[in-house]
């Protein structure tokens, strides 16, 4: 009984350490998300310096700027296939099937922007901001996925901790 009690306490301590570690990682990731949001705000301020809200083509240029560029999985597939054991191929095919509709939308926006005078609307600078915004968006999505995984792990550990706590109470009652 004493050994069982000691093991339950040890297991519970290990789980609580793991939960605390996950909580610390979650706090760190949420700080990263806040930093990305601040960088997004800075980008939007730079965008407004290049294209004032009262501008004649503001709505078109803003829609172009805010559109998240699709990063083709085909470019990253070899690295993903090595990591995922080839599972990325199915996802790549599914995405390719969906892309044509989005490509038409992108082409319409691209055509609307291409016709604008570069000097007047500073499209090159806006393109650079758009690329930076897309990178931040992708970083944020990766962090959010990691946060989701951490929260799932934490919930699983909390359930284990509850189970061990009940075992610990039963053992203490038996003694």
Explain what this protein looks like in three dimensions:
The chain is mainly α. Helices cover about 85% and strands about 0% of the residues. The protein folds into 2 domains: about 1-50 and about 135-175; about 55-120, no CATH class. It contains 6 helices and no strands. The longest helix has about 50 residues, at about 125-175. It is rod-shaped. About 10% of the residues are buried. Mean pLDDT is about 80; it is low at about 70-100.
Q: What does this entry show, briefly?
A:
The chain is mainly α and 175 residues long. The chain has two domains: 92 residues; 69 residues, no CATH class. It contains six helices and no strands.
What key phrases describe this protein's structure?
175 residues, mainly alpha, 2 domains, 6 helices
């Amino acid at each position: 009984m004493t050994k069982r009690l000691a093991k339950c306490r040890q297991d519970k301590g290990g789980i609580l350490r793991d939960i605390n570690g996950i909580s610390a990682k979650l706090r760190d990731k949420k700080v990263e998300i806040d930093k990305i949001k601040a960088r997004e705000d800075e980008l939007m301020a730079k965008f407004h310096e290049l294209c004032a809200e009262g501008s004649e083509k503001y709505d078109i240029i803003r829609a172009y700027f805010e559109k998240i560029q699709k990063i083709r999985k085909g470019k990253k597939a070899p690295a993903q296939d090595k990591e995922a054991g080839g599972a990325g191929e199915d996802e790549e095919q599914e995405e390719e099937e969906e892309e044509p509709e989005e490509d038409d939308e992108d082409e319409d926006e691209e055509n609307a922007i291409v016709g604008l005078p570069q000097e007047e609307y500073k499209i090159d600078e806006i393109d650079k901001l758009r690329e930076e915004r897309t990178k931040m968006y992708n970083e944020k999505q990766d962090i959010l996925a990691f946060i989701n995984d951490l929260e799932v792990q934490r919930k699983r550990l909390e359930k284990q901790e509850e189970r061990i706590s009940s075992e610990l109470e039963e053992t203490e009652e038996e003694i």
